[in-house]
Amino acid sequence: MIRGALINKSAGVRVFETEMGIVMRVGILCAMLCFMPAVVCAEKNVIAPPIDEAAQDASFLKYRNALLQAVVARNTEAVIALSSPTISLSFGGHEGHDDFRDKLNVPVEKLSDEYKPQAAQMREAYWQELETVLKMGGKFVEGGFSAPYTWVSPEPNHMDPYDVHYVIGKNVLMRSAGNINAPVIRHLSYNVVEIYPKDEDAAYQSVRLPDGTDGFVASRYLRFMLDYRANFYKHDGKWLMMDFLAGD
After folding, report:
1. Of 19, 84, 114, 219, which has the fewest beta carbons less than 10 angstroms from its beta carbon?
2. What ranges do the domains of the chain cover?
3. What whole-number distance in Å separates Cα of residue 66 and Cα of residue 46?
4. Which CATH topology does 164-224 take?
């Protein structure tokens, strides 16, 4: 369509016959050529491949391995010992070892009657979040280490952080509908996508790529930009987990 417009008189391009043939006004031609990339080039999709810089600091790698071992073993006191006494756990004022111990253990007596039957489920979900964060790599940032890698990965400027999700897999199927039998329209590898609306309990989420392509991806392959993350800093020669929280 663009190429046709360059020689279409009805499109406002003035054409002159000369002995040397057809000559087009240079100013108009240059203007249209400058406009072409904006028309024919869709916004590039953003890729956020996994990254783990932990091995760049042997002391941190040893620390993280010890912390992960404690988390896998569900050893509350070992995790507490590897965390800052002032660890931040939410944006609502929860901090310190006592609050962290409660979040790890989920004491039934501290729950309302409504949530008491869910104590074991809540406890395991919190441990699993911590384990996932420690297993998803990360980067050294401003003298510390931030995890997971999705927390320190780029996202398109125009995207709303509350909609941004990361595809955490290679060759993940993007389907035309939210079911396993729907046709596959793309294969995604660590793409950054938008989700709206999000259904926490759904097996598939409606997603959109930066280039405008819409489809559905299995929820298990998506991670929310503002999901749980952790930051670690070295204090008096000892690495400590300074925060573990979600949201903003």
Report:
1. 19
2. 2-40, 54-152+226-245, 164-224
3. 34
4. SH3 type barrels. (2.30.30)
Pick the CATH number of 54-152+226-245 from 3.30.2420, 3.40.50, 3.10.450, 3.90.550: 3.10.450
What is the pLDDT, as a whole number, of residue 223?
96
Axis-axis angle for helices 119-135, 58-72 (nearest 10): 160
Tens of pLDDT, residues 176-210: 999 999 999 999 999 999 998 888 889 999 999 99
Lowest-pLDDT choice from 23-27, 94-98, 158-162, 195-199:
23-27
Q: What is the pTM of this model?
A: 0.79
Amino acid occupying residue 237:
G
Of 41-55, 56-70, 82-96, 109-123, which range is least confident? 41-55
Write out the DSSP string of 16-76.
EEETTEEEE-HHHHHHHHHHHHHHH-PPPP-B----B-GGGSHHHHHHHHHHHHHHHTT-H
Residues 222 and 185 sit within 8 Å (Cβ to Cβ): no
Q: Nearest CA to 224 among 243, 196, 182?
A: 196
In the chain, the largest separation of any two C-alpha atoms, in whole Å, equals: 96
Residue 17 burial (10 A CB sphere; 0-12, 13-18, 19+): exposed
**154 contacts 191 by C-beta, under 8 angstroms:** no
Cα–Cα distance list, 104 to 75, 114, 121 (Å): 9, 19, 12
What's residue 196's pLDDT? 81
Structure tokens at 156: 């398109």
